[in-house]
Amino acid sequence: MSTINYEQIEHAVKLILEAVGEDPNREGLLDTPKRVARMYAEVFSGLNEDPKEHFKTIFGEDHEELVLVKDIPFFSMCEHHLVPFYGKAHVAYIPRGGRVTGLSKLARAVEAVAKRPQLQERITSTVADSIVETLEPLGVMVVVEAEHMCMTMRGIKKPGASTVTSAVRGVFVDDVAARAEVLSLIK
User: Fold this and answer.
1) Order of strands across the sheet with 163-170?
2) Residue 11 labeled ligand binder
3) Which family does the similarity line name (predicted)?
4) Residues taking part in catalysis
5) Long-range contacts of range 9-18, CB-CB < 8 Å, 24 or more positions apart?
6) Could you tell me the domains of the chain?
7) Which residues face 24 on adjacent strands?
8) What is the pTM for the complete model shown?
9) Which one of 55, 60, 126, 135 has the fewest CB atoms closer than 10 angstroms to its CB?
10) 129 Cβ contact list (under 8 Å, min separation 6)
């Protein structure tokens, strides 16, 4: 488990400010390195979390039908540019043998995975694989929709462009009707 080195972040932020031609001793910037260090500790707190831990609480319930938690908001940081991306995750699974988890655990797992330097594709597959490995469901489907600030404020500069990724496991791979049900419920 890693710990955040606040002093090192503060020093790095001062260097960045100087490198772009700013004066880190200017009144408005005096506390910026400390604020950025606290922000990084918060937005990268998922580095110290295993999303599978959220699925250790399992309830016995005679239910082998779809469970879907949709529109789970998340914020993450693009590992290529250290710029935010944000959106919604939709997590669906079909329990096996009465192994269900608390609904909030699905949202907590999304948050734990998102709070790291990240790629959207990795968020999607990590959440799906964590559910498969711990709950052993009949199937899992995770769909993530996000807007990436690295595409909005720099580079191609296309605000409003949305990226959609999906991870499909178990029965959802071959059962087109089950997959279509999830997608229709998400919309």
Assistant:
1) 117-118, 67-78, 84-94, 139-148, 163-170
2) no
3) Belongs to the GTP cyclohydrolase I family.
4) 78-81, 120, 148, 150
5) 9/33, 9/36, 9/37, 9/40, 10/34, 10/36, 10/37, 13/37
6) 6-43 (1.10.286.10), 53-186 (3.30.1130.10)
7) none
8) 0.94
9) 60
10) 167, 169
